[in-house]
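Hello,

Our lab assistant flagged a job as stuck in the queue for most of the afternoon. It eventually completed. Since we weren't sure the result was trustworthy after the delay, we are filing this so someone can double-check. Below is the sequence as submitted and the structure that was eventually returned. Let us know if re-running is recommended.
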Amino acid sequence: MKPFTISVKKLTDINLMREACEMTFLGTSKQSLLSIYKSEHSPVRTQLFWVKLEGIPLFISTHLLRHHVGSVPFQLTCRDDRKGGNPGLISKIEDIKTQLNQALSMEPEEREEAVNKVIQQLDWIANNSDRYTPVNLGLLLNAQSLIDMAKLRLCTAAHAETIQVFKALKAEIAKIDPELAAVMVRKCVYRGGLCGESLCCGFNSTSGFKKEIAEYLKNFNAKQIGLIQISNND
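-- returned structure --
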């Protein structure tokens, strides 16, 4: 996958979350961000983020904008009558066809160089069209949406490159809101080992899973953890 960039701005803070909590009872809220992220009560949606993903493949952008609850997407258009991504692809292909026909009619000593130029253009199209067309995606979304998105886009059932992009996004979230990043986990970790996929990958039976869920459980106290036990021998 080609290089891409991700930036994240947090638009709201703990004060707004506590103000929202205080609207639901008479008193002063002392809720922490981690506490509200763990409980996923409605004030979690007061924490808003502006995420910019630039230069990601079109198919990965499509995966991320499917998460429409609590997330508003702004994706670069691919229209050829606007200033969109990779405009005029059809005309480029027609031009290449013309160049190829001309190359085939050349003398052998000239033909090779002309054909190589056509091949270079075809290589460019292969990396910049269809599902790999590079696009920019902006997401205005809340913390709950990010938690829900992580369940599916960190799962091994997701496309490998989508996982790569989402891990990079989680890393950027961790820089400005580490409490939120701590609860952005794949679904089997979130569910304490249960997998809902029709074709389970088996990650929930691996040492990697035990390591991830042990890290996740550090965010919860013993009473919250309840029956889940992680053996120190594993």
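-- support follow-up --
The delay was a queue issue, not a problem with the job. The result is valid. The chain has eleven helices and four strands. The chain has a mean pLDDT of 90.
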